[in-house]
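Sequence in, structure out. First:
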Amino acid sequence: MTRNTQGNGDTGRRAPGPGLREIAAAAAAAAAGLAAIEDEFEKAVGAVVGALASGGKVLAAGNGGSAAEAMHLAEELSGRYHRDRRALPGLALCADGTALTCIGNDYGFDRLFSRQVEAFCSAGDVLALFTTSGNSANLARAAEAARAKGAKVIGFTGKGGGPLAPLCDVLLDVPGAAAPHVQECHEILLHALLERVDAAFAD
């Protein structure tokens, strides 16, 4: 039987989603709002550059798309952003599938990152946590473990930072944006941070 595709016009079709210009405008508006957290950003730069200059390291974690941002930070430190400089120690706690499945199986999802913080984090290090809401229990536990070790915690968040906010030494909370635009703003903050790291350690 041949399906009749004639004569019904647009009946039954879904309305199209927002166009590229609309999406880009929303992203630009979210990015413009980052000016409100410039002071916190400078604190984050000071924490990261200070830790690296003192022989410390930067650990990072996140879930889902935020895990990709954590890995992006770590690889740009050990590699480079766009200026030549010495390699810097960055470790993504969400990158090793064997560790994640081992810890998740033996200790549960909530301890995926805190267990690794207990293993790898030292006083003077920085733990960077990426989340659009701040509601992930495994990130809160990682922050608690890092603080117990004497490390500083930087939260890249949205929506006020949720339960993670009071556990952060520096809170980079993207003002008033939907989750997709929070992630885009995290990339801007991440790249701005890496620019400053490159400048601090450039050859």
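Second:
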Amino acid sequence: MRKVTRSLPAPRSLDKASVPRTKKVKGGAAPAAPAVPPTPTNELDRAKKHFLAALPTSGKRPAFPFKAYKADDVRTQLFKDFHDKCAYCESRYAPTSPVDIEHFRPKGRVKNTKGDGYWWLAMAWDNLLPACIECNRHRRHPTPTPPTRAGKTAKRLGLDERKGVFTSSNVLTTGKQDAFPITGRRLAALTYNYQAEGALLLDPCRDEPDQHLHFHIDPTAPLGLVLPKATRTRTTLAHLTPVPDSKTVPAIRKHAASIQASERGAVSIQTYGLNRLQLVRERTRVLRRLEFYEQLLIETAGIIQDLHAPTANRDARKRSERAITGLQKMQAMVASQIRELAHESAPYSVMVKAWAEDFRRRAALMPAMGP
């Protein structure tokens, strides 16, 4: 998940849905007071009338036809802000897969609560995100489990590429859908004090995801996992926090607290399904590509170092200089490829950035790479 700055102003369709319309009057005179209450003129007004009315005798309120958030200009602006990627997992939208315009705070019912959802935010620009269907809808996914110990040896977590599975996993139901767990008191209708709710899910536009999420980087065994960030120690695979479907958000929080990891990170990872099998496989492919680039940089650096060795033969020195120039061009091309993978528009760019920072630390210790 990457921090994204939402563009302003909001799409026009949303402004029209929530800003009261006024009629122009010739000569600047004030309009006459209506003889009867005016008909609601925009979507928010109509939603107020619908949701603030008394419940029908059936006790069940009919669904409200929200439309503003589905407008083309809303979709276009969201796709531009998020570089055609899912707001939660950073995957590019597949040409054949639908993309949900997701309400961070659900507009309809909210899981494990009674009453209406956040209907007054259905057309709020700061509540809309583009989400892939795997992050946003309930689905069953193989999800990795922490390494287990047998005697004094630990079972190593990884991907069995031949079978296409994790070496240790459970099948869990993930996907946000109507979930919105909080630690505080849920907002009353038409109020906007978001911070007081204590949202447990990370919002890529309001929060700093890198304070709660940590990508697992291990050059010896690339595996594209994201972990809840440790609060006091170094983050390791032991900080994986999947819990069975029968457990609840409090169980995830309790487990995260017991291993001193970010509770919001742990809840977000499991709710959005950020370690589902197919997603981890895609991230791992990117990590393996980066490891290939790393080996190219290291090998070319070693050859350049050898070619810099002094020689009395003038022709040999010229050949060495030409070879060094060619190798340096190759290094520049590899570095350019890495920068492209780390660009904010690329899939999994936050993981690539984490890999690059780790590589810089390791490269500083390699004699051939220099300071």
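Remark: Residues 113 and 180 are 10 Å apart (CA to CA).
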